[in-house]
């Protein structure tokens, strides 16, 4: 593939809506793009004492991010912010100081929530983190999805209106990656 896109899902829940959303994304991308969900469930809690000798799972995550042309975050909203597991992954791959894997990677944020905010609050917390990590982050369209009866089909795939909306977002994100590539 011309572009590998790393996808970070910020929920470890088996039936995660955000993972379902992430699972539906590859079908919306054009040829030349390959999406790879990266594992974050085996990362230990980040501990700066380990910077000189990072865990293998953190080294793997950094390798996968470095191989990617861009990163998509599918974030749940936990108590009006991002989940701890997502922040843990962001911290792991940002260290040791001066050796962040995130820098320069064009980012996209999507999120689905059962609450009315549709992860808007979580995403407003995620944006400045990505800004600090030097990740140019697509601004529009914003993807604030509240789970409704028709958001997902019975088989877990995207319902028609969600799919149409997400296709528009993917088209913009593809442009964003190509603009920042190389
Ligand atoms: C939630 N949930 C939630 N939803 C929301 O819209 N705003 C919020 O602030 C919170 N806070 C929150 C805290 C914690 C600790 C949990 C476990 C859940 C509900 C959340 O949207 C719901 O569990 C989603 O299903 C989480 O995303 P996944 O796991 O389906 O991807």
- CATH class annotation: Alpha Beta
Radius of gyration: 16 Å
CATH superfamily: Flavodoxin domain
CATH topology: Rossmann fold
Domain NADPH-dependent FMN reductase-like: 5-146
Organism: Cognatilysobacter bugurensis
Cofactor: FMN
Protein name: FMN reductase
What does this structure look like?
With 182 residues, the chain is an alpha/beta fold. The chain has a single domain (3-180), classed as 3-Layer(aba) Sandwich (Rossmann fold). It is 35% helix and 15% strand. The protein has 5 helices and 5 strands, in the order βαβαβαβαβα. α1 links the parallel β1 and β2. The model has no long low-confidence stretch (mean pLDDT 97). The structure holds ligand FNR. The site of ligand FNR has 14 residues, from α1.
Short description:
The protein has 182 residues and is of the alpha/beta class.
Compile the SSE list and pairings:
Elements: E1 3-9, H1 17-24, E2 33-37, H2 56-67, E3 70-74, H3 84-93, E4 107-113, H4 120-132, E5 144-146, H5 160-180
